[in-house]
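Pilot study result, target chain (328 residues):
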Amino acid sequence: MKKGLLGFVGFSVLWLFVSQCGNPPPTEFFAGNSDDSLSILSFRDTTSVFALTFFEDSILSLDSVAKMNLWRYARAGTDRSQAKFLTVGFGRKVIPDSFFIRDSLLFIKDTTATLILRRDFVGELSLRICSITPYDADSGIYETYFLGKDTVLKKRFTGSTWEWGHFEPVKKDTEPRVWRLVKVTGCQVVSIPNEENSPIIPYPAVLMTPGRVDSVFPIAYYRDSTKFGDRRLFYYLDTSCLKKDSLLFLSGGQKLTASVTPWMNPDDTTLRFLHCGERKSTSVGVILPEFPSPTFKRIYLDVVTCEALTYEKKDYRGIIWGVGTKIK
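Predicted structure:
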């Protein structure tokens, strides 16, 4: 019985070996080529989709709500080892040629590609101040009162960004392939000074227009794939905004306000802004631009620590979510 069984097993192995002879090898996974990489990276470098468009070209004045909250913080501050000032506006810019690119381009077996954009940069924070606490040489500390001083102070800072883009060729079976951006992540995430030391947004952020409320979920808080999240991919090419994975659709000309709750150090106080053509406190809101057809536009939720805008030697820390939307 055992001999018969061994003979059957041996025959089966031999038959399988012979039957596979002459068959073509399995199809290799798609790995792209230099032309594919160049096409995608060229799009990356020329499109505004991945640009840091929230940085201001000039110093923007604080709205009344932001100024009231910041000045209240400044007047209540007890650290007299360094100068304090009353800030009336600020602006930020990226230092030219400071980007350190850590992008990864991954080609997938079904002729698609994913671009993971990660880059570090150096920026400059410009503060327009109207008053400053004077130095007391006798005591070696700064006074508690403010004296008028209209000037601009500058601070260097570092930052890092994170986002994804999903690409597909217009036609898969032709070469050279013409690639197009099909999906983007729900948010462009900017951490200042870096991901380890910036505030985070662990709870859903809320965007509010008349008669409508939209929530943006952080992946750390909610992993339900049906929710609009900061790190999920959504259709960039979709113009109807009716698909399951569509970007948020907002109506132009309406007032947009927001609510965002950062997680910070216990002694941190923050200002929270909305950016979309203008920068205002989240409770004040902005008026959305109008376009003739659904147009991709990022709504920036911007969290800035008050200490950087108040103390001479405190570094700028913050986090920014660039929420992907289509506006008409």
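One observation from the pilot: Confidence is low (pLDDT under 50) at residues 1-19. A full batch analysis is planned for the follow-on phase.
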